[in-house]
Here is the input.
Amino acid sequence: MASTLFRTIQIHPFLLYPTAICRRRNGVLYCTMKSTQTQTATQEKQQPPKVKVSQHTQSKTPDKITRDYEAIIGIETHVQLSTLTKAFCSCPYNYGSQPNTSICPICMGLPGALPVLNSKVIEFAVKLGLALNCKLSLNSKFDRKQYFYPDLPKGYQISQFDIPIATGGYIDLDLPLEFGGGHRKFGITRVHMEEDAGKLLHSGNGDYSQVDLNRAGVPLLEIVSEPDMRTGIEAAEYAAELQRVVRYLGVSNGNMQEGSLRCDVNVSIRPVGQSEFGTKVEIKNLNSFSSINRAIDFEISRQALLHSQGHDDQIVQETRLWEEGAQKTVTMRKKEGLADYRYFPEPDLPEVILTQEYVDGIRNSLPELPEMKRRRYEKMGLSMQDVLFLANDVNVAEYFDATISRGADIKLAANWIMGDIAAYMKNEKLSINEIKLMPEELVELIASIKGGTISGKIGKEILFELLAKGGTVKGLIEEKDLVQIVDPVEIGKMVDKVLSENPKQLEQYRGGKTKLQGFFAGQVMKISKGKANPVLLNKILLEKLNAKS
Amino acid sequence: MLSTIQPSRCLSRFPVHLPTCGRTKSRFLRVVSSAQPVTTAPLADQSQILSIRDSLLSRHLSAVQVADSYLGRLKQTEPQIGSFLHLSEPDKVLKQAQEIDDKIKRNEEVGPLAGVLVAVKDNICTADMPSTGGSHILDGYRPPFDATAVKRLKDLGAIVVGKTNLDEFGMGSSTEASAFKVTANPWDLSRVPGGSSGGSAAAVSARQCVVSLGSDTGGSVRQPASFCGVAGLKPTYGRVSRFGLMAYASSLDVIGCFGSSVADTGILLHAISGHDALDATSSKREVPDFTSQFLSASSLKSRPLEGLRVGLIRETVDGGVDSGVKSAIQGAAAHLEQLGSIVTEVSLPSFSLGLPAYYILASSESSSNLSRYDGVRYGNQASCDELNVLYEDSRAKGFGSEVKMRILMGTYALSAGYYDAYYKRAQQVRTIIQKSFKAALGENDILISPAAPSAAYKIGEKRNDPLAMYAGDIMTVNVNLAGLPALVLPCGFVEGGSAGLPVGLQMIGAAFDEEKLLKVGHIFEQTLQGHKFVPPLIQDGVFA
Ligand SMILES: [Zn+2]
Here is the structure.
């Protein structure tokens, strides 16, 4: 590869479309095999999808205006697949590696190189198509989408045009209670396979840009929704549900910060009651669910305000960028007519033919998906809040399932996971897969408390020990001699000891100051090192306190 | 002046086995030079490859002597002919030959193509030599890999002697559209060698190399083979990996073979054929040993093609074809009849639709395939201050006018609003053509036609008349649209030059039945009495 050099493309750093300036430094073309900016190799941890909204950042436009309008929102989502190698060559892809370290003649688009499809891409596409309740095309094909850009090595993107692999599905979700709750079903227009482009790295002073092709050829699934959403929250929850689905399926890590899940939204408004659609505006640069929510709400207000002032002609077909700092959308480019991508069937790749057996095989191997999980948890009697919490993160859900499948009490298991365990994970910034408490030990812990072997208080202490260091509940109980004392004779002896050591208080109690019962109970618990069964303790204590001496 | 063709006298028959029969992991049986007694292969007189092999293994000649002989002729003829865009250093060729000799001396295995000098069309990637595709935009470009076909040849011991001239990216029929030079036809230096694989055809014709690789998208192997009087084979689409072939029109492109005999062409095809994991359109079909059933001329029975059904495509001998070419083809048909075959005329009514459909599809695909030449990653980059200008200038300066014209045509044909009228309709025509060939090949074992409507024309004659140039592809484009294999071999002469100009006969076979084409072609060639298709220029110095 030494003979083939990457060279600088010098363009303005702030706009990623081909009207920018490029300049040669000293008339020399620079090799970009060395990087100008080092990216961290640390991978972002999978954060469970969660839409956060701070109230004060929401639209400043009076609700009065927006109330007269209905927003129509559709989303195009690109999901980067977590296959071991790229879509059409054997290069691996790891987010954050040094520029141009994971490239080959094929993904560089060298003359004479040809694509060969990685069959995992089909498998993942079929999985997602089925999970989104789509109809699969048993005969689909790849097409070339043609345009020039330095990050697109071949001058065309291998994609699917008129026959996508999956069409006509839907996605179910439950809105969180803080956003009003309720079930939603949003239509999925299509799912198709395509390849990602590379990235441009812009120099610090903005003089030139360089091309990093590590990402070129990485497989993507594009999911196009029906324009079924009406609010920023609905759109954000749609994206969050999609993230849950791809993570449940294991087809993508779904991380928005890394760009593994990218959403472009289309927003238009129309006066309530009007049937025809307004002018559609596309918003890009949405890096989190909350930015989706806020960008859409901002855009709805912007359009509604223009419309209400009679300036609806200023709502034009364009692409706008969400500016996180300014909390607003700004024009990125106006669309002058439709872009002509001159699609035609990709002659280098055979048609994609699926057999019914293949599809059925994948269908039978699908895991339980978020919607099914939520409905099952609901039927088990959990509250919607608990259901949403537990089903939100596939790993948490699997952990919960592992505990209840071993016979743990459902409500208690949910409470432990959502309470102390979640708090611990949050404090320690760990995922549930990283804590040392195994589900079977949580089962044991819950059973030990319920069965009276240990007290709830000791249970909590053991829990934190297990979370941090691992081990077994039985082992810890034995090691620390934590078994609850349930022998009435033994407890009786301890009570006797406490009573005899505190004659003054006993006098007072018997004189009518019955509140001192708590004091005695505490003393007994103390000498039992917390192991005395509290119910038994109180029963015996009361008997002895009230006994006629 | 039409040569009369007589079947050669046929002698008693005995089975002949090439030393290269039997498929092993290396696709050829590797022969340990000392492990078996070397017998002169009976077909050695019909195949330069086998002759070289015999000479080396019997130690009559060394690989260095063989290479020296070719290099000498190359040095002598190249200034006049100009087949090559890049030549390997003679020392490097001789060093590779010496390594083969050393192996033979040490009684080590050598590959079946050991010491065979191969020329490679410059749109086929070679890691150790420039690969320009005949375009300024790739001036000086060196690929980091060998095309699969080249790799297979090298693995079998072949020595790549150089990269041959071509019409830029294969777009042309005379090699005049090369960005670098004009190649002359060895039969008449004032004439074109044909194209686009003109350099590869001329190099074999002038015996500057033993065999060569070309590429055929609409006739680019067959028409120059006809013009230069050599055997040229366009394999079935998918038979040979396209990996490393710079794409012109991906659904039509195929790497093809040139040789001075049918046997050489078949041996070369066998070497490069077969599935390649790097080309999703390459076929997984078994590759037969195409030449193992060949019989030497002396062992053929009297009517060796008894019962062979041959269909002469009526539309190819209609008006628009030179009368000399027509006579040569009719002579060839008569010769086939004398060999025992039954020749009838067949009609392919869709034949004339092939040309417009081909030019729409090939241009459409090329407009896409050539998008990668943007000056960003490799090749010539224009100096400029703005991205759009970078694209515009790099491409404006890098591409020649024929390439630009086809990119424009293809871009137009694929544009929104025109797609259905052009690209889609052309695809429908393609389907019709495929069906009509299938029907005709159901009734016939092979189809025959001229390889081109005329013999080689003068340099410059059609350069400014693209439509006349395109019309010259009428005989060959249908075969690419149908994806079928076709063999062109010299069958006669028309007047021109000092010794006449060769005329090629095209034989078209069913998909993946190259074996039959080669067998029939070999018999045809062996029974053409008294005709050695060697250009007058070098007739005296042919390596024997
Ligand atoms: Zn790669």
Remarks:
- DSSP finds 15 helices and 13 strands in chain B.
- The two ends of chain B are 29 Å apart (CA to CA).
- Residues 117 and 209 of chain B are 5 Å apart (CA to CA).
